[in-house]
Amino acid sequence: MFPYEGHLRMLRAQHAYSPSEIKEILHLATLNELEVVPLVQTFGHMEVYYLGEGEASRQWLQQEQNTKARLCLSHVKAVASHVLARHPATKPLVWDDMLRDIPEDQLSASGVPQLVQPMLWDYTADLDVHGKALLMEKYRKCGFRQLWAASAFKGATGVSQALTPIEHHLRNHMQWLQVAAHGPADTLQGIVLTGWQRYDHFSVLCELLPVGIPSLAVCLQSLLQGGFAEDVKARVENLLGIPSLEITGFTSEAAASFPGSDILALITQVGLHLRSSVDEMLHRDRYVTGWFSSYHRRRKLVHPVMIQHIQPQALSLLGRWSALAGELEAALRRVFYPDAVEEWLEENVQPSLQQLQQLLQDLGEAAGPGPPLASPGPDTGQDP
Predict the structure, then answer these.
(1) Which of 36, 56, 188, 211 could join 207 in a cystine, given CB atoms 3.0 to 4.6 angstroms apart?
(2) What digits encode the pLDDT tens for the residues 277-290?
(3) Rounded Cα–Cα distance for residues 64 and 167 (Å)
(4) Strands across the sheet with 147-154, in order?
(5) How far are the Cα atoms of 46, 263, 265, 291 from residue 298, in angstroms, in the given order?
């Protein structure tokens, strides 16, 4: 999303921010006492799990005493040293999953603890508090002077998750507060609340930012207040203009007043009801399952009386959801780029609408001109 120039221009996303938009983001951040910290991928999300599989690395690993851990540490050291040589005031942070299992003596001897600050990350609702406390102690013994924690306020619970399970993320933050309480007061420098948009560049979109804002507010207020009690819940409701915040389920479809709340309300309706209402008609409606099953649809067979039972209901359902989809698309386009809108609707809305459209098309074809049905009229009454 950064408007790279020169030989890095090829890294630009199709809808990268313009230089003027970058300036506006920085200006708004300053007004709201926020600091923009660029995320520059160097190792963590560039194929790190395949470390050691390149030909040069394979040859290096064949030498005695060389391990993947040493290879990882040597690369981190090289990158961090380069950054610090050019920007001495910069503090490189590293996600800690590749460090966790490296023995203390190797970490200490690598020189890495003097160059970077580890980010201990865990996004689960039942993280191992004691284990994290032991890990912090290990890092301190190795020479890491400053540590960070990383949680999540959205994402991390399902690659195609559409609605944010607030209770999961709240519990995650409560566990991190317990971890922080286990060590000296200055052990953790802070906590980073990550908000995933994709699991990687090739995966689908997970929860959109407007959907995750109530969870973000709950998590931030809980960290600030040291817990989540009724007064904290009331404060979040007041800040976001939400009449009644739902923690254990998904946020109410009732109107709220925070920016993007219209998107949240519409996506909540889609996420909770669209697929289930279409499935209800296609797989549990007695007229569809009994008189217009896949067998009938393939052979274009339908009793004329059944059309009167199926078609109006399908048209009504399609009409309601098509109208809501149009409203949602308009709301999304006010916030997101066209490709993101298209992707989200194609993944989450269109499949169900297409099922209804196909049902109506099959019904129309079956009801078209043709020889009369040879079977007797159906008994539409209840079975004895």
Answers:
(1) 211
(2) 999 999 999 999 99
(3) 49
(4) 93-95, 117-121, 147-154, 188-195
(5) 48, 38, 38, 13
Mean pLDDT of 336-358: 97
381: left (phi over 0), alpha (psi -120 to 50) or beta: beta
> What pLDDT shows up at residue 252?
62
d(CA 197, CA 344): 12
pTM of the model as a whole: 0.90
Pairing mode, if any, of strands 117-121 and 93-95?
parallel
Helix extents (H) in 158-303: 166-182, 209-225, 230-240, 261-269, 275-284, 286-291, 294-299
Contact between 258 and 236 (Cβ < 8 Å): no
The domain segmentation of the chain, as residue ranges, is 68-258, 266-366
**Helix (H), strand (E), coil (C) string for 278-331:** HHHHHHHCHHHHHHCCHHHHHHCCCCHHHHHHHHHHHHHHHHHHHHHHHHHHHH
The Cα 85–Cα 94 span in angstroms is 17
CA 78 to chain centroid, in Å, comes to 32
